[in-house]
């Protein structure tokens, strides 16, 4: 497969019946026993899990210093947003109490 062109790979898929001809419809799935969908579903789930594990092995996980740095950034951002919301609450509290609630 290493030296094949795109056209050669497409022609091979068409010959195998997994890709329709241009403008055509895909071939209907072959009829099988009644238990085939259950087995196929189980096989797809297993394939999904294997692929998921394979993808997780490709992930570049952060090291300890990156995790600590990210945690500090999140804590600082939460403190800033919390201070902003507290200040807005303190400023708007008299307006809400006196005008909207009428007390």
Share of helical residues:
55-70%
Task: Report the order of strands and helices.
Answer: HHH
Look at the helices and sheets and give the structural class: mainly alpha
Query: What is the mean predicted local confidence, pLDDT?
Result: 82
Biggest β-sheet: count, sense, barrel?
A: none
Distance between the termini: 80 Å
The counted number of beta strands is: 0
The Rg value, from CA coordinates, equals 30 Å
Mass-distribution shape: elongated
Beta-strand share of residues = under 5%
Number of helices: 3
Low-confidence blocks of residues: none
Summarize the structure.
This protein is mostly helical. It contains 3 helices and no strands.
Keywords:
103 residues; mainly alpha; 69% helix
Give an overview in words.
With 103 residues, the chain is mostly helical. The chain contains three helices and no strands. The mean pLDDT is 82.
Secondary structure: elements and pairs:
Blueprint: H1 6-16, H2 36-58, H3 64-100
């Amino acid at each position: 497969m290493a030296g094949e062109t795109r056209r050669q790979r497409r022609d091979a898929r068409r010959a195998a019946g997994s890709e329709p001809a241009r403008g055509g419809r895909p071939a209907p799935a072959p009829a099988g026993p009644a238990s085939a969908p259950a087995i196929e579903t189980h096989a797809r789930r297993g394939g999904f899990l294997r692929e998921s594990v394979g993808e997780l092995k490709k992930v570049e996980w952060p090291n300890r210093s990156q995790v600590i740095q990210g945690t500090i950034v999140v804590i600082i951002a939460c403190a800033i947003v919390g201070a902003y919301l507290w200040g807005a609450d303190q400023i708007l509290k008299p307006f809400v109490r006196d005008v909207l609630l009428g007390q």
